[in-house]
Amino acid sequence: MTETYTADQIKDLIKDDDRVQLAGVDVDGILRGKFMAKDKFLSSLDTGFGFCSVVFGWDTHDSPYQPELKISNLSNGYRDLVAKIDLNSYRRTNATAQLPSFPFFLVTFMDPESGEGLHACPRATLSKVVKKLEDEGLSAFAGAEYEFFQFRETPTSIYEKDFHNLEPLTKGMHGYSLLRPQLNNVYFHDLWDNCKSFGIPLEGHHTETGPGVFESALAYQPVLRMADNAQLFKYVAKTTGLSHGILPTFMAKPYADQPGCSGHVHISLRDKEGRNVFAVGPEDLKEGRKDAKYEDTKRISKEAEWFLAGVLEGLPDIMPCLVPTINGYKRLVESFWAPTSVSYAYENRVASVRIISPPMADPKSTRLEVRVPGADMNPYIVFSAVLGLGLRGIKNKIELTRPPISTKGLSDGSAASEIKLERLPKSLLSATERFMAPTSLAREVLGDEFVDHYGATRLNEWNVFSQAVTDWELKRYLELA
To answer: pLDDT tens digit string along 147-162?
Structure first.
């Protein structure tokens, strides 16, 4: 759980250090940071420090957006933003044989003019949604699971090979194997231990089906801490991999003929007394809720139904928040255990939202699992969008207007084929156009400024892709065109 620190406590914790490491998160979920002298750091605790706004003016490969966007551009001189240090994000990096452990902090980017959290900053966006929940007497808790391929490669070798014919960490399909981790057991357990020492407790860590694929489940936390942990898990996985000559990737679909890599998230709400708002009481469990429209929803509270209905209603409008890359939409195809429709279920892993509740879980653990995001997600933006829609559902008491899908069809007895399930957008372009539409629910729950900026970054991604000549095109057209 999250610890809170005062400035004096931080000064004492880093009294023997001469530098600290600081990082913020851009819209693509990339850590952008630096080392800073301790004296400079201490002088910035109250006011923050200047950080070049270009981290919100370029893409994953540091190419400026075309056209340039409002936050950072030539006309404003790529001005500085204010980076506000979050003392409660304090942790220490893992020591190595060559380097000691360093203090590490995350920052939230602030607008230098308004003094408010920058609308494009993922941490600021999630903090605003958390504040809206608190105003309603609620707090959000969350978990995340990552699947990721791994290669016996280095950042240098993948360029030398032009990203082709990479050597997987292990060969074959070995989900939940007890044997495959033994082939790389030092790395396998180093990743667990390095996460633990960096303040990222894991609940599970195993092989998943696919060549060299692991899956790691991060322990449940308050949602902002969970987003931090999910973001930093990738950092720990990659730095741990470097020390073993292994390169993990969180790309959603590295192989066309293999399952993709998911980034499932789990969400629940608690009231001021710490009670799980999604759980039904003992009497309800015994008799079943009388007002439940569909049989299965007797296992969750009315508030959970409203939250779920809000998520389902807005799901197609927030797709770029959940699936932010060109490649991510190639994971959302039939026959690969990936969700493709606006749907929910209990024991059906192809639904977009899976309900986890009694009898499959303790009532206190009742939660929703959103299965749409891939491993390439930005966790802050995912949680912001889902919680924003869910809170809207609760405040407007939105009723469920569709039955859940199940292993036998639908819970009301009709066949799944008889129900027209809305298909999720099939590309980043179509998803972004819906996301940016004037009537998009994303605008209502995340604000116009966020939608306009983030949507423009996704359109930039599509435009860059549309100009690329791919291997598929060469094989398709070079000889026969």
So the answer is: 999 999 999 999 999 9
Task: Say how many Å lie between the first and final Cα of the chain, rounded.
Answer: 60
Give yes or no for a contact between 106 and 89, defined as CB atoms under 8 angstroms apart.
yes
Question: Quick one: CA dihedral 380, 383, 388, 389, positive or negative?
Answer: positive
The DSSP 8-state label assigned to residue 341 in this structure reads B
Q: List Cα–Cα distances, 443 to 135, 136, 452, in angstroms.
A: 20, 20, 9
Q: What is the pLDDT of residues 85-127, one digit of tens each?
A: 999 999 999 998 888 999 999 999 999 999 999 999 999 999 9
Is-contact 236 195, C-beta < 8 A?
Answer: yes
Q: What is the DSSP string of 401-456?
A: -SPPEETTEETTS--GGGS-PPBPPSSHHHHHHHHHSTT-HHHHHH-HHHHHHHHH
19 contacts 34 by C-beta, under 8 angstroms = no
Structure tokens at 269: 């709400």
CA dist., res. 322 & res. 81, Å (int): 26
User: What does residue 78 show for φ and ψ, rounded to 5 degrees?
Assistant: 50, 55
Contact status, residue 478 vs residue 353, Cβ threshold 8 Å: no
Residue with tokens 């993990």: 248
**Residues 293, 301 contacting (CB under 8 angstroms):** no
In terms of DSSP H, where are the helices of 136-171? 155-160
CB 320 within 8 A of CB 428: yes
Q: Find out whether 122 and 29 touch, Cβ atoms under 8 Å.
A: yes
Q: Are 112 and 80 in contact (CB under 8 A)?
A: yes
Which residue blocks in 244-330 are alpha helix, DSSP H?
Answer: 282-287, 302-314, 319-322
Residues 6+ apart with CB under 8 A from 277: 138, 268, 269, 270, 271, 301, 303, 304
Question: Considering the entire predicted model, what is its pTM?
Answer: 0.94
- Tokens found for residue 34: 């630096």
Numbers of helices and strands, H then E, in the chain: 15, 15
Backbone angles phi, psi at 25, to 5 degrees: -120, 130
